[in-house]
Specification:
44% of the residues lie in helices and 17% in strands. The protein has 16 helices and twelve strands. The protein is globular and about 60 Å long.
């Protein structure tokens, strides 16, 4: 089954190109015919000339980033985007969600839907869509939300996994918290699951683990793409009967987003290090999984700085109602994906510990394990954990609080009202996300 990626705005198009580059490089390694074929079928199609074309639609209200992405892909010599798989205009959305959602989205709906339809027709079987966007600006967040709504309306049976890049907490755009609130509130009604990467965390990975001195957005996007590749590349699931999964989005959503109130997913990967250090490093499954489990329960996204003092609370002690510094990160569901040497001998029982999870689900339903004996990203052994937990509760709460403080002082509201977003729309979005915050806060109950 095939997955169509919809790249939206500057961030979505840049991350998307890096992702296809990662997946193509991984699939083209020698000696992996079955694995490579499964990966290509999902994310690429072969032209009559034998070239690989990404199953992607590129959308931006300005042409610069799309032209650059298409050029970079073609120059790689390994894959490219379809010549007619993109849509752009001459004027952006001005970092205004309302401009993207109420003006640009509806104004270009027919053209965008036609691009998606043509891409879907290239699929023998459609598994679903991955819209990729930032929540900070106008086109990615506003147009991206509108396009997601169109996908849900036209393809109601297809899975929709939104990938969101969360802005730096110090601020990229003055109205980023407004844009983020409006995006998340709407996507919560439209998506099957929402996978989030936080720029602040990825930046620290680049600095502290990859030892990059001058960190660029390309570095940030590359880390995000490698983590996404660890999730999306073919793996063997318990129900796949020895063959690579044919429905990656459906199985991922089924494993992690079993309740409509809980759709926020985060990703942790181990190991993460500079490529020059990999050849001089050795990895063992017990050490990798011990660190990854502690990263999960202490809500740490890097090996460096793990709080080893955090422990699951005793069953008789109950669980804390809020996620504070040093507190235990309770999970609703976790998906562990192991890749590389000796995956079948790796002991993963620690992730099935009932103390990690809410009492709503038994551990055998809350924890899922996928494996692939094929190494990924040059690591002999690697593990990726996709978690539906309280990990995003704090940044979500901070974002809503900052947006509400601005709204209470009526800052910039007129800039949204003039494009069709009312104060009541804002209030509805705040109410929706406050319910999400409450649900994740009460997750341990």
């Amino acid at each position: 089954m095939s997955v169509v990626t919809v790249q939206l705005g500057q961030c979505g198009n840049q991350v998307g190109r890096e992702l296809f580059d990662v997946m193509c490089s991984d699939a083209q390694d020698a000696g992996r015919k079955t694995h490579s074929t499964a990966g290509w079928e999902r994310f690429f199609r072969q032209t009559t000339q034998g070239d690989l074309e990404a199953r992607a639609v590129l959308i931006d209200m300005e042409p610069k980033v799309i032209n650059h992405s298409m050029s970079r892909a073609a120059k790689s010599g390994r894959w490219r985007y379809g010549e007619t798989s993109h849509f752009s205009q001459k004027q952006g959305s001005g970092n205004n969600w309302a401009n993207g959602y109420c003006v640009h989205g509806p104004g270009h709906r027919d053209a965008v839907e036609e691009l998606v339809r043509r891409e879907v027709e290239h699929c023998d079987m459609l598994a679903g869509f991955i819209p990729m966007m930032s929540v900070a600006g106008g086109t990615g967040s506003g147009v991206g939300t509108f396009v997601t709504q169109c996908l849900r309306d036209i393809y109601p049976s297809a899975f929709v996994l939104n990938h969101l890049t969360w802005p730096y907490g110090t601020g990229e755009v003055i109205v980023q918290n407004y844009n983020s609130v409006l995006t998340l509130a709407h996507l919560y009604q439209l998506s099957d699951a929402i996978l989030v990467h936080e720029n602040d965390i990825v930046h620290r990975i680049c600095s502290q683990l990859l030892k990059i001195k001058q960190i660029s957005f390309s570095d940030i996007n590359r880390v995000i793409a490698h983590q996404l590749g660890g999730v999306l590349q073919p793996a063997l699931t318990p129900d796949s009967c020895g063959a690579y999964s044919r429905n990656p989005l459906g199985e991922l959503v089924g494993a992690l987003a079993c309740h409509p109130e809980y759709k926020l997913l985060s990703v942790s990967t181990i190991p993460q290090m500079a490529s020059s250090s990999i050849a001089f490093s050795t990895f063992s499954w017990p050490a990798l999984l011990k660190h990854l489990r502690q990263m999960l329960i202490s809500n740490t996204k890097m090996e460096e700085g793990i709080d080893w003092q955090v422990r699951p609370p005793p069953a008789s002690a109950g669980r804390t109602k809020t996620l504070t510094a040093g507190s235990f990160n309770t999970s609703l569901a976790n998906l562990l994906i192991l890749r590389g040497k000796d995956v079948y001998s790796a002991e993963t029982g620690g992730f099935g510990d009932s103390a990690i999870y809410t009492s709503w689900l038994p551990p055998d339903e809350a924890f899922s394990l996928w494996k692939s004996p094929v190494p990924f990203n040059k690591y002999e052994k690697s593990a990726t954990l996709v978690s539906n937990s309280q990990a995003l509760l704090r940044p979500l709460d901070d974002m809503v609080r900052k947006a509400w403080n601005m709204f209470a002082s009526r800052a910039y509201i007129h800039q949204y009202v003039k494009f069709g977003i009312s104060e009541e729309d804002f209030l509805d979005s705040f109410t929706s996300l406050e319910q999400v915050i409450s649900s994740y806060t009460q997750l341990p109950c």
